[in-house]
Structure formats: C-alpha cells, structure tokens
Amino acid sequence: MFGFNVSMGLADKFRNICIKLGENNKPTYAVMAIATVKGIARPTFTMMDKHEDPQTKKYTALREGLTEVVAIPAYWACGELASKIAGKMSLSEEKKALAKHNFMFLGVCTAALFVIPALASVAIKPFMSKIQGDKKNTAPEHKLDIKETEVSETAKLQPNNYVQTFHPINMNNYAPAKMAGMKVGASW
C-alpha cells in the first residue's frame, strides 16, 4: 500500500510539472533544451566514432560543443529581446501575450539563422586556433628538385610538328530517342 501512494505522489508531481511547463511554455525554453542536448550528444557521438582520426574527432567534437555553448545564450537573448519589442506594442493584453510568443519564436529563428552562425565564426575560430596552438602545417616542407633544360636555337625556330584540326559536329548523327528507337521510361 505504501509503494502505491509513493508512486501516486510521483505521478502527481510529474503531472504538476507538465502542467506548469505547459502554462509557461516559451519557444526559447524548447530551443535551449534542444541546444543543450545537442551540445552534449553530438560531441559524445563524434568521439565514439571508431573509424575517424583521433585528432579530427577531437577538433570536431570541440567545435560542435562550442557552437552549442554559443547558441544557448544567443537563443535566450534573441528570444527575450524580441518578446520585449512585442511587449511595447499597443495591443490588448490578450493580443500582447500572443504577440510576445510569436515575436519570441521569430527571435529564436533569427538567432538560428543569423546570430549564431555569425557569433560562431567570430568566437570559435580564434578560440580553436589558440587551443590547437596554430599547428596549421606541421609536415616538413618538401622541395622539388627541378632542373631547367636548354632548348637549342634550331628547335626554337622549327614549327610545331602537329596541326590542330577542327571537326564540326554532324547533327545528323544525333537523333532524338523516339527516332532512334530507344525507349526510356515510357512506351511510345
């Protein structure tokens, strides 16, 4: 009997949490939750790839994780800023609440399309180069030993031994599929 009451208590708590989330559901919360899961899962799965070079895996996992670290506050800031803009509109309270949600959604979309890629390119590239220690080309440089040969004066004066010929395309050799008896995909 005691176990039944505890499970009912947990079920009630879970139901209450779901109700609260449903009442105060903002687009920013969902996107930030997705970005958090991506920030954890994508680097983890990248590091689990057994067929990839270890250095490549480390670089890719770190870059994916850092992108989501940049994304989470960008989603929040853009969503809240857009919501504040909607709050300043002269609308009724019911329409203002709807406008806030819609503007917040547009703010999150703007973050995903423009803000996060811009921030990631500005912030992550210098950070990654500092972590890697600017190891752009660690391979030793190989120089080719090319020697110039001298061409005799008589060879320079002689004309080329080949003549470039031009053969115009004879359009009679190319017939449409129907005329040539070919059937592709349909019956004629």
Low-confidence stretches: none
Question: Could you tell me the number of beta strands?
Answer: 0
Question: End-to-end span in angstroms?
Answer: 78 Å
The H-and-E topology, N to C, reads as: HHHHHH
Could you estimate the helical fraction of the residues in percent? 55-70%
The percentage of residues in β strands lies in under 5%
Tell me, what's the shape? Answer: elongated
Q: Characterize the main sheet.
A: none
Derived structural class: mainly alpha
Rg measurement, Å: 33 Å
Mean pLDDT over the residues: 78
Q: What assembly state would you assign to the polypeptide chains in this entry?
A: single chain
Please give the count of helices: 6
Question: How does this structure look, described?
Answer:
With 188 residues, the protein is mainly α. The chain has a domain of 107 residues. It has six helices and no strands. The longest helix is centred in the middle third of the chain and has 40 residues. The N and C termini lie far apart (78 Å).
List the helices and strands and how they pair.
Blueprint (H helix, E strand, L loop, with lengths): L1 H22 L3 H21 L6 H34 L5 H40 L20 H5 L19 H4 L8
Helix pairs in contact: 2-3, 3-4
Quick synopsis:
With 188 residues, this protein is an all-alpha fold. 67% of the residues lie in helices and 0% in strands.
